[in-house]
Amino acid sequence: MADSEDPRAQRLSGAGRAPGDLAGSPFRADRDRIVSSTFFARLGGVTQVISPGGSGLLVHNRLTHSLKVAQVGRAIAERLLGDAGHRDLLDKLGGCDPDVVEAASLAHDLGHPPFGHLGERVLDRLARERLGLADGFEGNAQSYRIVTSTEIRGEARGETIIGLDLTAAVRAAMLKYPWTRRGYPAPHPSTLSPAPRGATVPAAEPDSGSLKFGAYGTEVRDMRQARAPFEGRIADWQQTAEASIMDTADDIAYAIHDVEDFYRVGVLRQGEVAAELSAWQRHAGELAIESDAALELNARRPGRSIERLRRTLHRKDSWVSDDEAFATAVAHVRRELVDGLLSAPFDGSVEAEHAVSRFSDTWTRGLVDAITVTDRPSVRSGHVLLSPVQWHEVQVLKFVHHRFVLERPDLALHQRGQARLLGTLVEALLAWIDDPDETTRLPRRLHDLVELAEAELDPATPHRSAQARGRAIVDFVASLTDSQAVAMLDALSGRSGQLWTDAFVL
C-alpha cells in the first residue's frame, strides 16, 4: 500500500516523504526526523533522575534513557510479531510496526524540562498559578506539542511545516495518555471508576484536571487525526498497541537503569535494602494485620514501607495485584539485587562493570520475554503488558529506588534549590517579556514562540496576549538543558560576566 493510501502513514501536512528522508519506510523516516531534531540532542543535558553534575559520575540522562527505551521497545515488538497469535491480535488492534515503536520511544521524552520530574512539577505549578494557563505543563503533552507545533521541519508546497510532521501511527504511539487535561475525549477518562492510570484527578485539587495527559488543548485536532486510524479498534481513551509497547518499555528501562545509576553513585547500599526486604519476608503475616495508621507511624522501621507498597498495589491495581506474585517478586529482587549486584560496592573496575552489565542484561531479557498481548485489558492497563509476576518485580525495583534514593534528605536539598531556580527564572523572563522597552531585544526564539502561541489561540480568548506570553515562557524554559537554565538565570541575575558567550542559551 502506498504511503498516501495508508491512514497510519498520513502526515498532518498531507505531504509524503520529504526529499531529505532517506529511509524507504515512512515510519523509519519519522525515526530519522526525531533523532535529527535539536530537541532530541538537548536531552543529553537533561536530568533523568539525578543530575550528572551533582553525582560526579556518568549516570543516565534523558537521551540515554530514550535510547534504551527504543532498544527495549523494538525488542518487544519484534518478539511479539514473531508469534502468530500475538501478531494476529496486534493487527486487529490497529497494527504493530517496530519502526513505529522505536520512533515513538525516541520521541516520548522530548518535552521533559530541565531537572527531570522535579522540573515538570514546578513548571506545572508555575504555569497554572503564576501564568494563568489552565492546561499547565505536562512533559508528555509538551513532547506532543514539540512534534506537532514548536519544532520547525522545513517546507512543503511552499509552506512552512510546523512540527516534525510525523505520521499518524508514530504520533498515536507517543500518546501514553491519549486525552487532554480535561474535556477530551468525552466522557473524560477521569470520570471512569477506576480511572485509567494517570487520568486520576488529585484529591487536593479537584478542579485541576487529570494528573497526566498526552496533549494540550491546542493540539486536540492533531491528536484526533493521529488516533483516527484506530477508531473502532480500541477504546477512545486506550493506548494503541504500539503506545502500550513504548509505555511498557519505558517502565522496564526506568526500573533497571535507575538501579544501575544509584549503585554506581554509591547511594544504593546493600544493608538498607536487605533489611527492608528481609524484614518483610520474615514478618509478612504480622505486618499484614497492622493498621494503616500503625504502618505510617513506624514507616522508617524495616519491612513497613514495602508492606505499604503491597497495600497500595491492591488498592490501585486489584486487576493484577496478587500476594503470592508479590512475595515471589520480593524474593527474586532480594536474590538478584541484594545478594547479587549490591553484594560488592561499585569501584569502577572491569569486574564491577561486568556485574552491572550482567544484571541489566538478565533483567531486561527476562522482562521482555514476559510480555503478552490481550484483547480485553483492564482500564488501568494497555493491550500489551507484563505477566503478573514480572509486573510485580518492576514495582518492587521501582520501590527500591524511591525508598532508598528519592526520599534521601540530601537529594531533597539539591532539588529544592533547582525548584527555586526554575521559579526565579520564570519570574525573570516574565518581567522581561512584559517590559515595553525591551520588545525589540527579546531572544528571537522567545519572540517567535509568543507569535506561535498567539496564533493558536482563538481571537476571542480572554487575556489572549497574556496567555500567549505565558505559554511561550513555558515552551522556552522547557526547551533548555539543565546547564542552560542555570546559565540563563546567572545572566539575568547579573552574576555572569561572559557577555557574548551567554548567547548560547538564547
From TrEMBL:
<dbReference type="InterPro" id="IPR050135">
    <property type="entry name" value="dGTPase-like"/>
</dbReference>
<dbReference type="Pfam" id="PF13286">
    <property type="entry name" value="HD_assoc"/>
</dbReference>
<dbReference type="GO" id="GO:0006203">
    <property type="term" value="P:dGTP catabolic process"/>
</dbReference>
<feature type="region of interest" description="Disordered">
    <location>
        <begin position="186"/>
        <end position="206"/>
    </location>
</feature>
<feature type="region of interest" description="Disordered">
    <location>
        <begin position="1"/>
        <end position="27"/>
    </location>
</feature>
<protein>
    <submittedName>
        <fullName>DGTPase</fullName>
        <ecNumber>3.1.5.1</ecNumber>
    </submittedName>
</protein>
<dbReference type="GO" id="GO:0008832">
    <property type="term" value="F:dGTPase activity"/>
</dbReference>
<dbReference type="InterPro" id="IPR006674">
    <property type="entry name" value="HD_domain"/>
</dbReference>
<feature type="domain" description="HD">
    <location>
        <begin position="62"/>
        <end position="255"/>
    </location>
</feature>
<keyword id="KW-0378">Hydrolase</keyword>
<dbReference type="Pfam" id="PF01966">
    <property type="entry name" value="HD"/>
</dbReference>
<dbReference type="InterPro" id="IPR026875">
    <property type="entry name" value="PHydrolase_assoc_dom"/>
</dbReference>
<dbReference type="InterPro" id="IPR006261">
    <property type="entry name" value="dGTPase"/>
</dbReference>
<dbReference type="InterPro" id="IPR003607">
    <property type="entry name" value="HD/PDEase_dom"/>
</dbReference>
